[in-house]
Amino acid sequence: MNNNVKWKGFILPLILGVAIWLLTPFKPVAITVVAWHLFAIFVATIVACITKPLPMMATTLIGITVATLAGIFKMDEVAAGFGNSTAWMVAMCMFMAAGFIKSGLGKRIAYLFVKAFGKKTLSLAYALSVVDGVLAIGIPSNNARVNGIMYPIIDNLSREMGSDPDQGTQRKIGSYLVFNEYEINNVTSGLFLTGLAGNMIAIGLAKIQGITVSWMQWFAAASVPGIVALLVIPLVLYKVYPPEIKATPNAHAWADKKLQAIGKMGLSEKIMAGTFVLAIILWLVGAKIGIDATEVSFIAVVVLLLTGVLTTKDLLNEHFAWNILVWLSIIMLMSQKLMKLGFFPWFSKTLGLLLNGMNPIVVLAILFLVYFYLHYMFPSIATQVSALYAGFLTVAIGAGVPPILAAMMLAFCGSINLSTTPYSAGPAALLSSTGYVSNADWWKLSALVGVIFNVIWLGGGLLWTKVLGLW
Known about the structure:
single chain; 73% helix; mainly alpha
């Protein structure tokens, strides 16, 4: 008996899956029995990803096996499903993130910004925000950015300034910098398509419904609300959650000392920097020369392998990348089959009729807010995107929302809704447990920033997309 299996976690998925299966509409309707049965298995699989009797990779493997035994898939289809381009892009970007951390380039960038702009606490917060933004272009793991690069630097710098949660002096500067990093990381995650794995998952699901969003299209739509949020959040937190230390003259010397300790820029850092710049250029112009975003990520990883910045062992050690490659491929495969069998078009048309007469933009705004606040129920980005994104997108399209607008706005929401709870994602779980920010402060500040995010990204974002001609 496997003690790692949480058997109670299977109860709700089984109940829902069996119930939906038994409700199969045998009278003539617009969808087939096979489509309905796959929907039952899909719902059970997604719910199991939430209740977690096993990790997501194992859960989705069980789901696709059941679907195969039910005759919905052939094994050749399942095997071919692991060639999904979105899943591979996410995995490759995770490998790029490993290159940033292993080479030390991420830390060097942070130290350089602190040295240049760290004379006052507010300017230091902005400098660290810019660093996170730069790293987000090529590191789609918010965990890697926060846990591997940003938090260790903020923690060391705060203690250097005499701000130590172990001594009860966290409010001197550490509390402000830690919470600012948490919220800024949510902004930078939404600023770039490659800023968060969840973004690529969402756009991959949108692609199944015939909606294609390029790296540049994403950035164009996210740039204004993203940059406004980057400017507003550090200042708002500085006012409502002020640090006791307003000036940080020691930050320059501290960063300089750190830079001296790591020495001159090594060959691996130079190669990583060059590869990073190459990836950005290709993400910007690749579509015009026949190179898509997934191919760019492959090119970058191959360069890092050929130059020795990364080794095969490094890739094999990136367990999360391989894990997400498996479960995301299966989720995409099930979604593609549901689309092929006509389930999503039928679902969209059916719900669209219920919303007939409502202004499409009003419908989108309501869906955005519901999607945002539903994250209070989810301890994982990937789980919510997998569970809700395709359905919300289908409803929006059925109500008459322009498809590309609906796809991007809901995907943006999947980044900024990480500002909700101490368990919203890995960075929140880490930062909220460091002792720098009390639990009560965390909830209050998160609620406030959530409102600000909705004003900027929903209100301002819709206005900006109007300027761009998306609706």
